[in-house]
């Protein structure tokens, strides 16, 4: 089985034009791959560049150097140089992402926020909603909230909507940016079970988990991001 | 799904005497894609929109549009009558000021029905039924169908303008600051409505706005313009979360946090 995601020699820096063009190196020489059915965890202290790596893999941050090769639609795509249209297709079909915070849209119900990725992939709305209901129930989101837009939800409630939205599809690659940060123990266990199911289904997962217990429970392998510190090479 | 763009702009420039309106703008727009053009007043974004919609003729450059038969036609080589036909059928244009896109002295129903008649519908009952359906899709009560838009609020007028544009099932819609001049609560409702309609109908759209939040909510791709030039373009979330050009960084850092 081909490796779904291979990252080689990726580098990223930010140039702050409003601060006299000062350049902030973030990471350099980032190289790893994720196999189908494994969950790798990015390790390292805050500011080491873990989130930046995830964002590059999702096409949300631009890549300065290197390649991000993803298995997509019977071919290989380099996300570092792909056109916006290709990145959108990869997001629709291949790479899913659970961000740290939910970006809410006015007037769209929690249920539809969760169902939307399936509808975008062509499933009928009612079928997608049925799956969304099942997932929200599993994550213990009170049913009275389902029809409401999540803007006014608590942090933990929004996080669960976000997780349901990320886990509802069958993307072969799933990126997780601290999905359990604001959850209680019961819901953390639900997320751990969801991750185990994804692994069993052959999904390649890459995540950031600050919670030690969750990391222990899900990680097959830790990728130490401090070895990619940009200063080491740039200096 | 076809892999050809719907609209291609190539090296479009428009000069007003020696002043630059927009210069050397190129892009492709695919079916179902929403492209936001952002920038401050005077950046050339409206000039570009007007050139693309053939309301203005560019000084140089070409734009070609894939017609329903799959053939590309160069917009600036079409006859005036052909362009008008395209405008009435396959395209929509949503103006910032609804009064520019509506006929203020005929009823709401007639505003919607008129576009249908322009494409050949003649059956009164059918036209009225379609008009009622579209008014409800833009959340205007059926009992307002015989009222003139003059009696409508700003938000309602804008929704009516959208219904008038979408009733003929266009494939491409141009929007010039569609939420400009509306209260925020009205804006949110309109944005949500537009977002739903664009997704459900698979419309392609070019939206000119100075509001980055509007661009984020509606578009997948965006172009940032300054002094008539495109200074940055790409995926909307990429441009907003990792802006590269100095001007885009200034724009993004100037957003007020609520």
UniProtKB/TrEMBL annotation, chain A:
Q: Where is the ABC transporter domain?
A: 5-233
This protein's UniProt keywords: ATP-binding, Lyase, Nucleotide-binding
Q: A Gene Ontology molecular-function term?
A: ATP binding
Q: Which residues form a coiled coil?
A: none
Pfam short name (any one):
ABC_tran
Q: InterPro entries recorded for this chain?
A: AAA+_ATPase, ABC_transporter-like_ATP-bd, ABC_transporter-like_CS, CP_lyase_PhnL, P-loop_NTPase
UniProt key word Ribosomal protein: no
Classification via PANTHER family:
ALPHA-D-RIBOSE 1-METHYLPHOSPHONATE 5-TRIPHOSPHATE SYNTHASE SUBUNIT PHNL, LIPOPROTEIN-RELEASING SYSTEM ATP-BINDING PROTEIN LOLD
In which family does this protein belong, per the annotation? Belongs to the ABC transporter superfamily.
Looking up NCBIfam families in the UniProt record yields: CP_lyasePhnL (TIGR02324)
**Protein name as annotated:** Phosphonate C-P lyase system protein PhnL
- In which organism is this protein found? Mesorhizobium amorphae CCNWGS0123
From TrEMBL, chain B:
Q: Which UniProt keywords apply?
A: ATP-binding, Lyase, Nucleotide-binding
Residue stretches making up the ABC transporter domain: 7-252
- Has UniProt tagged this entry with the keyword ATP-binding? yes
Name its GO BP terms in alphabetical order. Answer: organic phosphonate catabolic process
Q: Which InterPro entries does the UniProt entry name for this protein?
A: AAA+_ATPase (IPR003593), ABC_transporter-like_ATP-bd (IPR003439), ABC_transporter-like_CS (IPR017871), P-loop_NTPase (IPR027417), PhnK (IPR012700)
A Pfam family annotated for this chain is: ABC_tran
Which SMART domains does the record associate with it?
Answer: AAA (SM00382)
**Gene Ontology molecular function terms on file:** ATP binding; ATP hydrolysis activity; lyase activity
The answer, when asked if Ribonucleoprotein is one of the entry's keywords, is: no
PROSITE patterns for this protein: ABC_TRANSPORTER_1, ABC_TRANSPORTER_2
Determine the domain of life of the protein's source.
Bacteria
Q: What's this protein's family per the entry?
A: Belongs to the ABC transporter superfamily.
The record's listing under PANTHER family reads: PHOSPHONATES UTILIZATION ATP-BINDING PROTEIN PHNK-RELATED (PTHR42764)
Q: What is this protein called?
A: Phosphonate C-P lyase system protein PhnK
Gene of this entry? phnK
């Amino acid at each position: 089985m081909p490796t779904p995601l291979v990252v080689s020699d990726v580098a990223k820096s930010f140039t702050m034009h409003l601060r006299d063009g000062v350049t902030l190196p973030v990471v350099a020489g980032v190289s790893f791959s994720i196999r189908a059915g494994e969950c790798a965890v990015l390790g390292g202290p805050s500011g080491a560049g873990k989130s930046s790596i995830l964002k590059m893999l999702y096409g949300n941050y631009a890549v300065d150097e290197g390649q991000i090769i993803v298995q997509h639609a019977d071919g290989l795509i380099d996300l570092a140089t792909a056109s916006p249209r290709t990145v959108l297709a990869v997001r629709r079909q291949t790479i899913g992402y659970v961000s740290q915070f939910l970006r809410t849209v006015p007037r769209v119900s929690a249920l539809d926020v969760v169902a939307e990725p399936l509808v975008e992939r062509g499933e009928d709305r009612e079928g997608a909603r049925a799956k969304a209901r099942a997932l929200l129930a599993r994550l213990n989101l009170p049913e009275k909230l389902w029809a409401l837009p999540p803007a006014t939800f608590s942090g933990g409630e929004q996080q669960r909507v976000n997780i349901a939205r990320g886990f509802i599809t069958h993307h072969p690659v799933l990126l997780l940016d601290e999905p359990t940060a604001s959850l209680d123990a019961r819901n953390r266990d639900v997320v751990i079970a969801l991750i185990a199911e994804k692994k069993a289904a052959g999904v390649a997962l890459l995540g950031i988990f600050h919670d030690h217990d969750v990391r222990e429970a899900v990680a097959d392998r830790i990728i130490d991001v401090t070895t990619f510190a940009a200063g080491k090479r740039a200096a | 799904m076809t892999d050809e763009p719907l609209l291609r702009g190539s090296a479009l420039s428009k000069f007003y005497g020696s002043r630059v309106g927009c210069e050397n703008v190129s892009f492709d727009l695919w079916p179902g894609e929403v492209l936001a053009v952002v920038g401050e007043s005077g950046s050339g974004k409206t000039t570009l929109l007007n050139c693309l919609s053939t309301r203005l003729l560019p000084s140089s450059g070409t734009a070609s549009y894939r017609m329903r038969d799959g053939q590309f036609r160069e917009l600036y080589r079409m006859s005036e009558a052909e362009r008008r036909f395209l405008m009435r059928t396959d395209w929509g244009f949503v103006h910032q000021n609804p009064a520019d896109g509506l006929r203020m002295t005929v009823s709401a129903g007639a505003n919607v029905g008129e576009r249908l008649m322009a494409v050949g519908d003649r059956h009164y009952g059918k036209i009225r039924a379609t008009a009622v359906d579209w008014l409800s899709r833009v959340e205007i009560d059926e009992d307002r169908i015989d009222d003139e838009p003059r009696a409508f609020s700003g938000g309602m007028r804008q929704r009516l303008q959208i219904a008038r544009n979408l009733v003929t099932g266009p494939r491409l819609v141009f929007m010039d600051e569609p939420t400009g001049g509306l209260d925020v609560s009205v804006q949110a409702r309109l944005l949500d409505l537009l977002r739903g309609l664009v997704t459900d109908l698979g419309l392609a759209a070019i939206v000119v706005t100075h509001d980055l939040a509007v661009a984020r909510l509606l578009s997948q791709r965006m172009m940032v313009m300054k002094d008539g030039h495109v200074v940055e373009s790409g995926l909307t979330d990429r441009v907003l979360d990792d802006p590269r050009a100095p001007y885009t960084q200034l724009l993004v850092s100037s957003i007020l946090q609520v």
